[in-house]
Amino acid sequence: MKYLIKNGNVIDPSIGLNKKLDILIEDGMITEISDSIEENKANKVFDVQGCVVAPGFVDLHAHLREPGGERAETIETGAMSAMNGGFTHICAMPNTSPCMDNAAIISLVLDKAKTAGYAEVLPVGAVSKKREGKELASIGEMVEKGIVAVSDDGLPVATSDLVKKALEYCIPFGIPLMEHAEDLTLTKKAVMNEGFYSTKLGLKGMPSIAEDIIVARDIIVNSYVKGWLHIQHLSTEYSLNLVREAKNRGERVTCEVTPHHLFLNDSYLESFDTNYIMKPPLRSEKDRLALIEGIKDGTIDAIATDHAPHPNEYKNCEIDIAAFGIIGFETAIPVILDLLHHKHGISIKRIVELMSINPAKIVKLEEGRIMEGKKADLTIFNPEKEVIINPSYFKSKARNTPFKGLKLKGSPVLTVLGERVVECKVGD
Amino acid sequence: MTKFKHKHLLGIEPLSKEDILQILDTAKIFKGICKGTNKKFPALKGKLILNLFMENSTRTKSSFEIAEKRLGADTLNFSASASSLSKGESFYDTIKTLESMEPHIVVIRHSSPGSSKFLADNIDASVVNAGDGAHEHPTQALLDAYTVREAMGTLEGLNIVIAGDIKHSRVVRSNIWLLKKMGNKVTLSGPPTLIPFDVDKLGVNVDYDFDNAIKDADVVMMLRIQRERMVESFFPSLQEFNMLYGLTKKRMQSLKEGAIVMHPGPINRGVEINSEVADSSRSVILEQVSNGIYVRMAVLFLLAGGQINEISN
Lengths: 428, 313
Fold this sequence. Notes:
The complex is a heterodimer. By secondary structure, chain A is an alpha/beta fold. Chain A has helices at 75-85, 103-116, 139-145, 160-170, 196-201, 209-225, 237-248, 259-263, 285-296, 332-343, 348-362; strands at 2-12, 17-26, 29-34, 44-47, 52-55, 57-62, 87-92, 120-125, 149-150, 177-179, 192-193, 205-206, 229-231, 253-257, 302-303, 377-388, 407-417, 420-423.
């Protein structure tokens, strides 16, 4: 099969590319890139005039729920949803049941992903056996099978001792420890960010320091053992400053933020809508604005969705027993383009770095993916197209999104990974 | 008088000053009727009211039941322990089951903030919030306001101190909304561990020094200390709490002349309030209980579409 991607603005910051070009793809490989390629060379032509053609977007943080949570999502529906939202590679977090803490389950996940044949799934193994925070999981064996990082995902690494050992142990593998920073003693039975709105609504608050304390602990340990620490879904101004300072000292600390922590704040909880319930919680407006500064000044490495599907009944209930988390693959591009590009003037190049180049580096994907002779790995989006988010188009099994019905400027158009080509539709 | 503007009473926050006065004035008329020989006013005859109490309550539930009976409504009590909730039915399914019984009004008490809104969003009936977690308890604030107005002759320009467990109290949140809307000065006092984050942004003062806080008070509202909070270490002991924040006889004597003492009940003698105070002439605690009936009659009557001139005629 031969595809021609015509008239797109090809942007690949890793090789300094920013030009209107045509791309010919034959049997999943890029065979020609030039100013103009004749249409008769291809079986199918996609005229993407006005669209950006970027190296495939990489999501560092997703929950595919399989094995164990197939009522919410499967690897197949998750990977399909990812491509419909514009992602070619997604990191699968290990809080499955049983948990992804050994080579056999990693193989199972990879096999399922291969059979599904949509976005590439990059598994993240547990730090500790059963994510219990006691003994190290078989990290080396899981690396053999293909994990790209370790995380006790959904839980912080339990003790300073285990953080130290895990960071040390991962050094020879060159993979990061991805930390869910939450001091659980400060967040018991809590529902939302502690602040004016938790006070007003009478909901138990998770103080921002619950995140900051773990980020501080980990940065201290990491600077001591000279490992690689990656902070997941960073959400507070204080934690952002800690990461910025660590980076300035030359320590290897990377971090991601989610579209929802950039777009929303804790005032949305006034609706008591359980789709605003997640961990970390939506923070104050001050924190939100600090994160946008962190995007601008380069402290934040990547945008990751924390795609967290849940069955309807886990959300259609009382707010203080609702499941934490929202789906994210199919809303990420509209939310990020609308907010960062259109409202905050952040360049498309920087957005491509945040959603493709930088996360690809973290999971060690090849750089410079838009070149002749490489496997086709492209995310094509239209920054000017307005879309009203409509979850009935979503490929995810779940519908737990706060962005339903929202009109956003920017939309995914086409996702290409090898011979897999998905025309994206996430709204009207 | 016009019809009441709201379908539900989910909180004080959405009400205007006029809405509040409409409820209080209606309650006053009901009090007059109930003090007469014929205590019944069957305006809600044939209407079904469900009392959905998913959290323990004795006084609020009893008060609503009396109000409903005086208005001649048919009532059904649906309590959590007697229901299928303990069998694992979801709140949503419970609501849908109740909806099939075609109630006109549902009164709900639930431990989760926002639960009355969830009910209102999912049922075709008027909803009265009888306490949703630490969020709101609007009829308590209304009966408190009624009692203050009756005792002080006014409901504006007063110095009102609310003390004790502010953090976990729905009563205080509804009272703050109401008292601020009516133009009073509200001061909160209690140990810092029980004062929630940024509460001053609701337009109130915070004074950790209880003695100082009550110096100029016209009204002192004490909140119940739930003994189980001690386990969570918000304060070291009930004795110490009483020493620092209990309304003792000595503190009562330092109050301005004419100042009143209130408590939503049930009271813990010797913890947040001492016997000499609870039983003193300054205490309007029992008036609060009886006024609760008239205020709840007013709320139910107005939500059912009743108008005050129907009663006065």
